[in-house]
Specification:
Strand order of the largest sheet: 10-12-17-14-15
Number of strands: 18
CATH topology of the largest domain: Jelly Rolls
CATH superfamily of the largest domain: Galactose-binding domain-like
Structural class: alpha+beta
Order of helices and strands: HEEEEEHEEHEEEEEEEEEHEE
Helix content: 10-25%
Oligomer: single chain
CATH class of the largest domain: Mainly Beta
Distance between the termini: 114 Å
Number of helices: 4
Shape: rod-shaped
Largest sheet: 5 strands, antiparallel
Length: about 325
Amino acid sequence: MYKFDKTKRSCAAVSSVMGEVLLTGIAVIMFSMLATMVFSLDGPVDSPHVAVETWARAPTDTISIRHCGGDVIDTDELKIIVSIEGSSYVYSQADLSECLNNSFWELGDVITINTNDKWSVSLTKGSPVYMYLVDTDSKQVFRRVTVIPGGGGSGGWLTPAWVIDDDLDGDNSNFTDILAEGDECYTQYSVAKRNKTDPYSCDTNEEFLFDINMADYDYRLDEQVTNVKLKLVYKPHDNSFLVIRLNVFDSYPSPGVWYCENGNLTDSNDWNTYVTDLSDRINTAEDVEGLRVRLEAVGNAADAAVKEINVDYIAVSFE
């Protein structure tokens, strides 16, 4: 009887140990299966992170987006979807590389899209444009931006805020003399007679300062400006001038420089209208803000003769 009880207790102990081993084995197997399932799942997609600045210009149908910080973007892994007036257009990887002339988009780089040239689509001032920056590797939109096209250009001709006469009589003309064309109000620029030692040297001038604040026209200082036109309506006192010269101040880059726009304006004794395109030199918002125009002349007559040029109107326009 004693031997049987001892055998019974021994079998119970073995069963208990085996049960614990079996349960432990099952737990290990289940944990391994769970770990395998968890670690086999794809991790979160690592999309690019970038800060941007955007602006758009309706008259020129251009949208610009500047890289302001964050990851350097490989253009082969980027495309931009642009939504205009409910229709979507794609600016591809090839377009980006051509625009940037580089295979990367990095800090300070500006992508400029001309919607008319690219898709024959015009922008409307005040109508939102939606842009989606897509990482083609992860197929994820990593940046959404809305830009409102602004600016209708100058909206017409803008006249100077100041007129400064550095001439013989020393009196400044009033800027109201040039506000309207054909109103019988005009400046009086007293022209110096020619210098015998340097006949073409201009000792006097009449200067026009425009003092335009480009922020009033929705322009940034570093933004491009197009189709900058200058209109001048003037009349020489007679047709006996050695030279009538038109100089323009190009303010950017600082400190700026004067250049001769026309060194031989007509001296016809009548009201003359002269219109010229300044865009080859005056082509940024900063240029327009610093715009100054100077009229210089040298008389070609006897000492007793009076030489004078009248300016009826001078104005600038831009897009």
